[in-house]
Write a structure and sequence with these properties.
Belongs to the DedA family. The chain is an all-alpha fold and 439 residues long. The protein contains 21 helices and no strands.
Length: 439
Amino acid sequence: MSEWFDAISQWLAGHPQWLGLVLLLICFGECLAMVGLLIPGTLLLFPVTTLAGSGVLNLSTALLLAFIGSLAGVLVSYALGRRYHQTIRQLPLLRDHPEWLLSAELYLDRYGATSLIVGHFIGPLRPMLPLAAGMLDMSFGRFLAASLVASAGWPLIYLMPGWATGAAIRLPLPEGFWREAGIIATVLVLLIGISFYCSLHKLRRVTLLIAGLCGSSLLVLTISWPHLTEFDQGLMAVIQQERTVTLDRVMIFITRFGDGNIQMTAGILLAVLLLALRQWRPALFASIVLLSSALANSALKHTFARSRPEILLDPLTSYSFPSSHSSASFAFFLVLGTLAGREQPTRLRMICLLLACLPACLIALSRIYLGVHWPTDILGGALLSATFCATALALLQWRTPLPPPSHRAWSLILPACLGLLVAYALWQLPTGAELYRYK
């Protein structure tokens, strides 16, 4: 740790309220109409959250402050649009740059309340969509529901990298941790970056290319995971440092979404609903991805027979690599994200996939937090499902594009499947407290 970082961290450790205030204000400004387009909030967040992770703020506090700041920014923006309506176009900035507001209006008009969730993750749209929603008199109930979801998910992407870096700097980690973490991060960034680049430029057979990239990354991981022990142990130590009673309950609830029985039931329900609504090809796509991911996960588990971390009082006896929770949840939510993005512009398809990965990432993270999987286990599960999802999509639309489910289908699928997952997680919450007791 450098001297300046050490000195600032020591001062902030005694005055954490100042760093918390700065974090809240950055998130507020990043989501505030027009202001978010002028300040480099995303760039400022990384050093601030790195300092927070160095021991000044725990993870739950940092995420809560970011959530409050984000929600306050969008609420103020909505109130401004509702108060001034069309006259707000006469402000100097909007008079000189009418396209800022016009793009938000067009996006909102096309996708409705969903645009508030998706657009919250797109820099130029994030501060302008709430303003446009107020101008167009969107009902406050719909606006608030979408904004709560967006403000809860946004910090997970924008805060976690910096906070995890600060926490890793603070702790005495194994000697090879940073080298191995750097290699893994580089591979993941290249994988995502190449996939985005090829998709945006509409290269021929891009889905098959992505399947090959994911499959190659999975193959490399299956060969190299025995040599990544420093990364596994170091990241596990970083996450275990953040355990609290309240966060334990939250993570137990989240991890139940990925239990094998409920994931299988949700997958069957999804396929049955699609078939009942005569959505034949989407039903075939979902069935192939979910079934092949489950079978491949089971085969790999028994092939490598990796032992789980010894953190629980009563460790689980099943094998560890790859994580079945990670594989099942990524398969399920990637299917939903892929179907939601059909016949949409390329950028929106990518955003749909990223948003679909958020709940899957939370489920995967809960497995490390609860001490039942190594980090490379959940990476293996995610890459496995991504490989089968991309492969199935490439094969099914080899000649004709895969059609999206109808609006009527979505009105049944989302409430039924997500309601089933939530009901099961609540039902299994008491038994989880006993199952995931740690030393």
